[in-house]
Specification:
The chain has helices at about 1-5, 15-25, 35-55, 70-90, 100, 105-115, 115-130, 130-135, 140-165, 170-190, 200-210, 230-235, 250-265, 290-295, 310-315, 315-335, 350-355, 355-385, 435-450, 475-480; strands at about 225, 240-250, 270-275, 300-305, 340, 390, 400, 405, 405-410, 420-425. By secondary structure, the protein is α/β, with parallel strands linked by helices. Helix 13 links the parallel strand 2 (about 240-250) and strand 3 (about 270-275). About 35% of the residues are buried.
């Protein structure tokens, strides 16, 4: 997956290799005026290319945290950036070079002196200081973050870094600190990342309290029809399961463990999840992510859900409808018998972005229009593939009176006090929390079983271990799905 390629050491070894190669090349080779002559223009061009890449090498996203590197970065872009950074470093070490003089300016030298503290502190501050936690957005939020990063960096520099570097510590103290510090660090990492030490005792009880009705809310009202009787035509059974693949973006990715558990509760289905942040049908060059997996596992049914495509469906409706049609035709050509388009829940992130008042209303209306535009594209494709495509409006499973819902009452107790309602959406207003995944997955499984003429989903699947399944970059439940109902 994209996460693995980005984070795995052996797939990013070239970054370390370029740095090591530069260190090997310059050792015992003093910088000369001759080297400065060719390094000067090369390093300036490299710095310009790096600044260009910082701005343009990521996908554009309306929501913070949803941008991902472009395909070019994985096809050599990261290597070019590493080489460019090496050129900049090589030039800076040449006294009197253009970049050496530039980076010798007092403000830049001061930043460089405390740069390690900036590196350590910027990420946790950006993660925890959000519009949802401080009720600010835009430039005000940016200034607050920069101020906190500055304060934390200077505090740690003068109270911790500088005294440790400048003080002469006895050998015994240094050995004790080195061994003890390593042991404490390892213990902290192990304890802080182990679910055994941070159990969620209330989650299982809440999932039980939100057990879906039969039929689940949001199920039914399917558009289109399927002409195949899977049990008789394919001889599928509990021992010979139908491969069903769920394709989508980050909504499907983060909800993937729950959706897999929901579909696996149907005895005749073997579920597969093929989803990741930012994936969709907007650009045909990105289809390979889905189609390669289809070639590997040969699913017979594909469930497609995608919130990331909705803005494209709104801005370029004809182009996007053609993309959905052509992608469906490709799936059919590859042996996929049925394609199901599942509606994603309405999104609502103005409060997460710090928007209020009229601006919040406009954003919410924009999200609804985009959702409707995607539905129109899906319905148009369903009409073009009679008997082989359907549309499931299951996004209603986590809506309240047809609108976005951050919290919902238990399905069996709609009159429950609002202070006891549970979050169904993460604080970004887009992705689903465990309870939301439970309700959405129940509607999906019910409609899949009904439309494919399969056995009904087994009850109790929502009490499995899927909420504890770890995914790369999976937002922590405590921070992204807090128990923060405004009436609580």
């Amino acid at each position: 997956s994209l996460n693995f390629v980005y984070n795995a050491s052996f797939t990013r070894l070239f970054d370390l290799a370029v740095g090591a190669g530069l260190a090997w090349w310059v050792v015992e080779r003093p910088a000369t005026a001759q080297s400065a002559r060719w390094l000067n223009p090369l390093s300036v061009l490299s710095l310009g290319a790096l600044l260009f890449a910082f701005y343009f090498a990521g996908s554009r996203s309306q929501l913070p945290g949803n941008a991902v590197p472009t395909n070019f970065m994985f096809d050599g872009g990261f290597l070019l950036c590493a080489v460019g950074a090496a050129c900049v470093i090589a030039s800076v070490r040449v006294e009197g070079s253009w970049l050496a003089r530039t980076f010798s300016l007092r403000p830049l030298r001061a930043i460089g002196q405390v740069s390690y503290g900036v590196y350590l502190w910027h990420w946790p501050i950006i993660i925890y200081v959000t519009a949802a936690t401080v009720h600010l957005g835009g430039k005000k939020l940016l200034l607050l973050r920069l101020g906190l990063i500055t304060v934390a960096t200077l505090t740690s520099y003068f109270l911790l870094e500088k005294p440790i570097r400048e003080r002469r510590w006895p050998l015994r103290v240094r050995r004790t600190v080195a061994v003890g510090g390593t042991a404490i660090t390892l213990a902290v990492v192990m304890f802080s990342t182990s679910s055994a030490f941070f159990p969620l005792p209330s989650l299982r009880s809440e999932l039980a309290r939100y057990a879906p009705l039969s039929p689940p809310i949001g199920a039914g009202d399917v558009r289109g029809s399927l002409s195949r009787d899977w049990i008789t035509a394919g001889h599928y059974s509990a021992s010979n399961k139908i491969p069903v693949m769920v394709m989508g973006d980050s909504v499907a990715y983060y909800a993937g463990p729950g959706l897999r558990a929901a579909l696996a509760s149907i005895p005749q289905i073997h579920p597969l999840i093929q989803a990741f942040v930012g994936n969709g049908l907007r650009k045909r060059s990105g289809w390979a992510y889905f189609l390669d997996r289809v070639d590997q596992v040969h699913p017979k049914v594909v469930v497609f859900l995608n919130a990331f495509d909705e803005l494209t469906a709104l801005r370029h409706p004809e182009m996007y409808r053609q993309n959905v049609h052509d992608f469906t035709a490709l799936l059919r050509h590859k042996g996929v018998e049925d394609v199901i388009f599942a509606s994603t829940p309405f999104a609502h992130s103005p409060s997460y972005l710090g928007y209020t008042g009229a601006r919040e209303v406009r954003w919410e209306a924009g999200f609804m229009r985009a959702n409707i535009a995607w539905r129109k594209a899906a319905l148009a494709t369903v009409a073009q593939f009679p008997g082989h495509a359907e549309y499931f409006p299951i996004g209603r499973a986590v809506q309240l009176k047809g609108r976005y819902a951050g919290w919902l009452a238990p399905p069996s107790d709609s009159t429950a006090a609002t202070s006891t309602w549970q979050r169904v959406h993460m604080i970004d207003g887009v992705h689903l929390c465990p309870v939301g995944t439970e309700l959405y997955g129940a509607a999906l499984a019910y409609d899949v079983a009904a439309q494919l003429h399969l056995s009904a989903p087994r009850s109790g699947w929502w009490l499995g271990n899927w909420p504890q399944e770890k995914l790369p970059f999976f937002p922590a439940q405590a921070s992204w799905c807090p128990n923060d109902h405004p009436s609580g």
